[in-house]
Amino acid sequence: MRFQTNLIHGNRADDKSTGATNVPIYLSNAYARQTAKELADIFSGRNIGHVYTRISNPSVEAFEKRMLAIEGGLSATATASGMSAIYLALMNIVQPGDEIIAASGVFGGTYNLLKNLDHQGINVKFLDVLNQETLDQAITSETKIVFAETIGNPKLDILDLESVGKVCQQKEVILIVDSTVTTPYLIKPIEYGADIVIHSTSKYINGTANAIGGMIIDGGSKKYQNEKYTNFETYHKRFRQFAFTAKLKMELGKDLGATMSPTNATLNLTGVETLQLRMKEHCKNAKKLAEYLSTHSKVDEVHFPGLTSSPYYEMAQKYYGEACGGILTVRFGSKEKAFAFIDHLNIISNLANIGDTKSLVIHPASTICAQNSTKEKEQMGVYEDLVRISVGIEDIEDIIEDVNQSLENI
Ligand SMILES: *Cc1c(COP(=O)(O)O)cnc(C)c1O
């Protein structure tokens, strides 16, 4: 099946008993079996089935399978949020003393999560640019993970996935890629050598901002058999390429219980059907708005990887062509002007989110990055005069008119 058909029919499992075409919200914590042996067989792994919703749930499983059909890979695990997906994926791999290399342009929440891992004896090195050279220098025998975003939020730097994938292959380091901003509509990181793909499904996957969730896609890497991943030894022997997911489901995933709720899974399953239609509009509108703003006298700078003025333009062309995502950032010269721009908008909402059908703005320096030092903010591509815009799918004329009347008020 092609992409759009897969969004609707990929691994589709209609309810056989009723014929319902939408997967029911299975609001059941536990699943009864006729005999003690049946339940024991599931617990021991001799048979598969649902036993308890912290571990698995039919609605959640249906969403996991749909995501797997869309993204590719071997197995998918839904989580309570994008942050819990990142935490679980990292901690499923590392042990105290290990090292993670991360792009410094990652999402503020992720930056702080990584920074705080030092409390658990995990050393995180942030690099401004990830490529063959910088990674060759930075990777040591302690390095277990390289973590990056396809397009940094809100730095909007473009990851050279192909070369990073190659280095991680040579060095047998697990590559985890957060593709929240791009979604499988724009790129499938596993095809470039990513071992794990992360989504905050709260954003474009859900699409209408009505359910928080996360997804861990396991590409089925063979790297876990390398002797440096000793904690995977038993899992690799027993589960082969499913080692990562097996360990996740049998250890931290189950222990922490940060699972996606069945209601959210069902909302996401409905939302994802229109992913392609929405992404096309997000990308088209963002490009038009970026072009408009780049000629406006009240704007100092516009950052959008699809503009020739962007330092990431060429890299963006390599991976994304015309469609470079739905996010852009604007600099106004002062915080006061940035605030005035936000305050005078009518249609566009001021809130902490991206990937909604609605156009959204935020001043990252005083909100999502408020906890970070000026130096850290600059590493993340965040400045006092910068506003991030997540361009929605309204009529572009209305978005531009709203932006324009606000700019006139500055
Ligand atoms: C929002 C976001 C997250 C965190 O996801 P939540 O669902 O809010 O926990 C992680 N990565 C990126 C790129 C994001 O935009």
From TrEMBL:
InterPro entries: Cys/Met-Metab_PyrdxlP-dep_enz, OAc-hSer/O-AcSer_sulfhydrylase, PyrdxlP-dep_Trfase, PyrdxlP-dep_Trfase_major, PyrdxlP-dep_Trfase_small. GO terms for molecular function: cysteine synthase activity; homocysteine desulfhydrase activity; methionine gamma-lyase activity; O-acetylhomoserine aminocarboxypropyltransferase activity; pyridoxal phosphate binding. SUPFAM superfamilies: PLP-dependent transferases. Keywords: Lyase, Pyridoxal phosphate, Transferase. GO terms for biological process: cysteine biosynthetic process from serine; L-homocysteine biosynthetic process; transsulfuration. It is an enzyme of class 4 (lyase). It holds the Pfam family Cys_Met_Meta_PP. Its EC number is 4.4.1.2. The modification N6-(pyridoxal phosphate)lysine is found at K203. Its cofactor is pyridoxal 5'-phosphate. GO terms for cellular component: cytoplasm. It catalyses: L-methionine + H2O = methanethiol + 2-oxobutanoate + NH4(+); L-homocysteine + H2O = 2-oxobutanoate + hydrogen sulfide + NH4(+) + H(+). Belongs to the trans-sulfuration enzymes family. This is homocysteine desulfhydrase.
